[in-house]
Amino acid sequence: MAASAHIAPNAWIFAYGSLIWRADFPFEAREPGFISDFGRRFWQGSTDHRGVPEAPGRVVTLVDAPGESCWGVAYCISAAQAPIVMAQLDFREKGGYQRRAVPVMLASGIEVEGLVYHATKENPNYLGPARPAEIASQISTARGPSGTNREYLFNLESALNAIRQPDDHVSEIANALRSLEQDR
Asked: What are the residue numbers of the active site?
């Protein structure tokens, strides 16, 4: 884990995947927001949470996408809790993710600097693009210590709908998985 981005007192963490609905750390505030010029994609393999090394699941990462906005949730972490929270998140996001500082536009109109966990294509768990039906098929059977990959996909879709910011890529894969399950 490269910790090139450090956390400042009362810093923000930007969540775009499972941290949206499963923030298992203390925080001072939680607010929807977005980061610009990034897209969320199911291109990262999960061998430690939603899959296993022999059968990786697929989870989201960020890709460069000029002109796009990636919505999620920003969490404000107190200075006192920051070292503990960052240690927990560094462990949780160890499967190819690195911290990166990004500007986050909160729904309230305030811009803050936030830290995001970002997995690039250089990491060993990167799976890359595939057709939505292929991604859905892989997700349908993957299971790891944190549960099924199916649960991850549908929880992410629900969490994004709850903040009124559905994601076309997530919805397309969720619909492909529903279709696949209906055909079984």
From this structure: 93
pTM for this predicted structure = 0.91
Instruction: Compute the distance between CA of residue 123 and CA of residue 42 in angstroms, rounded to an integer.
Output: 15
Domain extents in the chain: 11-183
Cα distance between residue 5 and residue 108, in whole Å? 25
Q: What is the pLDDT of residue 10?
A: 75
- Tell me which of 3.90.1150.10, 3.40.50.300, 3.30.750.24, 3.10.490.10 is the CATH number of domain 11-183: 3.10.490.10
Is the separation of the CB atoms in 57 and 143 below 8 Å?
yes
The predicted pLDDT at position 2 comes to 41
101-109 own/partner pairs: CB under 8 Å, 24+ apart:
101/5, 102/14, 102/35, 102/38, 103/35, 103/36, 104/12, 104/14, 104/33, 104/34, 104/35, 104/74, 105/33, 105/34, 105/35, 105/36, 106/31, 106/32, 106/33, 106/74, 107/31, 107/32, 107/33, 108/31
Three-class SS of residue 13? strand
Sign of the alpha-carbon dihedral angle for 5, 6, 9, 11: positive
